[in-house]
Design goal:
Helix content is 10%, strand content 48%. It is elongated. The relative contact order is 0.13. It has two domains: 123 residues, Immunoglobulin-like (Sandwich); 117 residues, Immunoglobulin-like, CATH 2.60.40.10.
C-alpha cells in the first residue's frame, strides 16, 4: 500500500467519522474542504494535487460578505482544521489586499482540531465600493501556504482626493468642486439619495463655503450602481494667505438612513504649493 495514498485515505476516513459523530450528538457538522488556493515558497500557485496533500482543511477558501453598511465593521472568519495525526503550528502572513488585520485564534493546533482566522477588511465611510481582503496561512509541517480571500461591497459615499491652489488674485477665482460618487447595492439602487448638509471647518471657518450639490443619475456597473456628484465651492477674498487644512463633513441620506462622510481639504497659496499637488 502506497504511504501517501494511505495517509490521504486516513484523513478522509477521519473526516467522515467526525462528521457522523457531530450529527449523532446534535452538533452541526463543519465542512472540511480542500483549500482552493495556495502558494509554494517561490510564490507559485499550487496544483490540485498539492492542495489535497496540505495538512489543513478549511470551512471555505473564499467568502462573499455581500453588501456592508458603512457604519459596520467588515470581517470574515475562516476555520482551519488540522487533518493530520500530529500537532502543527500555524503562522499567518502579513495582511494583504485591503486587509487591516489578520488574527489567528491560536497558533498551536492539536491533531484533528481547529483554529479560526479572522480577517478585518478596510471599510467605513472612506472606503465605499468593492472591497477585497486576502491572507496566507502556513504550517510547521509544510513549506506551502493556504490562501484565503473575502470580498464584499461597502455602500455609501466615496470622495476623490482634492486640494485647492489659491492664485494671487482671488476676485474671479472659482475653486474646483468636491466630487465623488455614491455606491449602492442591488437592493437600494433605486433609493432616494440626497446630500443633506456640508460643514467646512478650520481655523478660518467661513473662508470656504459649499453650494447645492448636483447628483447624476445612477450607472449600472454590474455588481453595484454608482451615482456621481459634485459640490460647488466658493472662497472669500479674506481667505488666509498661508496654508490651511480644512475638515469637511458631508451628511447624506440613502433612503431613510443618514450617514456622515469626512475628508480633509488642504488649501495652498500659489507660492507654497508642494510638488505633486
Amino acid at each position: 500500500m502506497h504511504p501517501q495514498w494511505f495517509q490521504q485515505s486516513h484523513r478522509g476516513l477521519f473526516a467522515t467519522i467526525r462528521s457522523f459523530a457531530q450529527r449523532l450528538w446534535g452538533f452541526p457538522a463543519e465542512p472540511l474542504l480542500v483549500p482552493e488556493l495556495g502558494i509554494d515558497p517561490g510564490g507559485n500557485m499550487l496544483s490540485r494535487e498539492a492542495l489535497a496533500a496540505m495538512p489543513l482543511r478549511t470551512s471555505a477558501s473564499r467568502l462573499d460578505l455581500g453588501v456592508v453598511d458603512p457604519r459596520s465593521a467588515m470581517t470574515a472568519s475562516f476555520r482551519l482544521t488540522n487533518v493530520t495525526d500530529q500537532p502543527i503550528t500555524l503562522h499567518s502572513g502579513p495582511p494583504g489586499c485591503g486587509c487591516e488585520s489578520v488574527e489567528l485564534s491560536r497558533s498551536a493546533v492539536p491533531a484533528y482540531e481547529s483554529a479560526t482566522l479572522e480577517m478585518r477588511i478596510r471599510s467605513g465611510d472612506r472606503y465605499a465600493g468593492p472591497r477585497t481582503g486576502c491572507a496566507t496561512v502556513g504550517t510547521s509541517v509544510s513549506d506551502a501556504a493556504v490562501m484565503l480571500e473575502a470580498r464584499g461591497l461597502v455602500e455609501g459615499m466615496t470622495t476623490y482626493p482634492r486640494s485647492i491652489r489659491l492664485p494671487k488674485q482671488l476676485e474671479r477665482f472659482v475653486p474646483p468642486p468636491l466630487a465623488g460618487e455614491f455606491v449602492l447595492g442591488p437592493k437600494r439602487h433605486r433609493s432616494e439619495v440626497k446630500i443633506v448638509h456640508v460643514l467646512i471647518g478650520g481655523d478660518s471657518a467661513g473662508a470656504i463655503t459649499a453650494g447645492e450639490a448636483k447628483i447624476e443619475p445612477a450607472e449600472d456597473l454590474g455588481t453595484y450602481h454608482r451615482r456621481r456628484f459634485e459640490i460647488p465651492l466658493a472662497i472669500s477674498r479674506d481667505a488666509p494667505p498661508e496654508t490651511k487644512l480644512y475638515g469637511v463633513r458631508i451628511t447624506y441620506r440613502i433612503g431613510r438612513d443618514i450617514y456622515d462622510h469626512t475628508l480633509s481639504l488642504p488649501v495652498f497659496p500659489l507660492a507654497e504649493v508642494p510638488s505633486g499637488h
